[in-house]
Amino acid sequence: xxxxxxxxxxxxxxxxxxxxxxxxxxxxxxxxxxxxxxxxxxxxxxxxxxxxxxxxxxxxxxxxxxxxxxxxxxxxxxxxxxxxxxxxxxxxxxxxxxxxxxxxxxxxxxxxxxxxxxxxxxxxxxxxxxxxxxxxxxxxxxxxxxxxxxxxxxxxxxxxxxxxxxxxxxxxxxxxxxxxxxxxxxxxxxxxxxxxxxxxxxxxxxxxxxxxxxxxxxxxxxxxxxxxxxxxxxxxxxxxxxxxxxxxxxxxxxxxxxxxxxxxxxxxxxxxx
Length: 273
What we know:
By secondary structure, this protein is of the alpha+beta class. It folds into two domains: 7-101; 143-272, 2-Layer Sandwich (Dihydrodipicolinate Reductase, domain 2), CATH 3.30.360. The chain has five helices and five strands; from the N terminus they run αααβαβββαβ. The chain has a five-stranded mixed beta sheet with strand order 2-1-3-4-5. The longest helix has 136 residues, at 5-140. 13% of the residues are buried. Residues 256-273 have low confidence and may be disordered.
């Protein structure tokens, strides 16, 4: 078979021209377009990675802040719970203390009321007993008894001890007014003279005396001058006994009762008014 070299050459030339044309007008634009597309895709991918990294960073930051918020919320909730529990316990303790204090106060009030009632009953009984005694002794008192008490009073004046005698003597001598002698009944002239003589002899001076009647005295005589007082009467016995009974009742109210003191023998009272 014969080869037509002209035809082969023409076909080869046409092929080369076709290749050049395809490369010039088709292949290069396609490659350029592909390159541009690849660059655009790479750029988009780079942007997507950056956005993804930024999104991941924001997500991590959000997670961190969310974890911090949860921790703060848990801490605040725990603190609020603890404070609420402490406040509840404090209120309960205060209420318990207030209840205990109120109970103690009520018990103390009841004890005080009971004590006051017992004291009132004792005082009333004591007052009634001594009031009856005074009334009975007053009703039984007579002029002859008063005269006898005057004699006893005169004797007691003469037998006064040194300290009492000195105090009364100074009061009598320094007084600007006469000494006052009081008695439940009028003192007879004889008794007045005896008392006057006893005073003058006891204190070696002329003592001015004024006699008065005092119905409230219970069978007795008292002398007062310049703040000093000397008394001898049944009322003194009653007052001494009443004082002893009152002290005895007070002793019984103490937690540890003390032994009852031995009663002293009554003697003329010398005291300042």
